Amino acid sequence: MSEQTRYRITGGLFLLAIAIIFLPMLFDDDGVPSVELAPVDAGYQPPVVEAFEETVPETDLAARVQALRQEADDQGFHRRTGTRIGEPVLSLPDDETGVWAIQLGSFSEAGKATAFRDRLRADGHEAFTSMFKRGEGTIMHRVAVGPFLSEERASSLATDLEDQYGETPKLMAFGN
């Protein structure tokens, strides 16, 4: 079959399809019936909606923010714990410690702390860093694993981490 014949057949089929679709529309009944709408009353006034009084609920947020500002120094470190506000607080455990962490290192350079944390994470441990201010303003970066709800679990893992990384771990209280 020649190319010209194929084009003629294709064009004929296209025209036939158009005719099948649109011809019934032309010879249909009256089409869609029109709908009569009631005339709009020219004197209609929409109801007046009274504006409500906007009241701001009473809150102690400003007082809490002020209290937090007094607890932090100019660099954002908590005056009592020395830890940067918003980061995990590690402290020496006491009789009431319920949540534990294992501190594996303390670095003065953030890059070394981040690299060690990333190494621990790559080995499957839940590691994190925490900044704290020591002494006269020296900023240190702790690397720790945790938190743990059991002191026994933390002690057991501390022994394994010491064998694996050669660092002396410290069991610490995690939280405030």
Describe this structure in a few short sentences.
The protein has helices at 3-26, 61-71, 110-122, 151-165; strands at residues 90-91, 100-107, 127-134, 138-148, 170-174. The chain is an alpha+beta fold.
Could you walk me through the main structural features you see in this protein, from its secondary elements to its overall organization?
The protein is α+β, with helices and mostly antiparallel strands. It has helices at residues 3-26, 61-71, 110-122, 151-165; strands at residues 90-91, 100-107, 127-134, 138-148, 170-174. β3 and β4 (138-148) form a beta hairpin. The model has no long low-confidence stretch (mean pLDDT 83).
Helix content: 25-40%
- Mean pLDDT comes to 83
Main sheet attributes: strand count, strand direction, barrel closure: 5 strands, antiparallel
H and E string = HHEEHEEHE
What structural class do you assign from the helix and strand content? alpha+beta
The share of residues in extended strands comes to: 15-25%
Number of helices: 4
The overall strand count is: 5
List the uncertain runs. none
What value does the Rg take, in angstroms? 38 Å
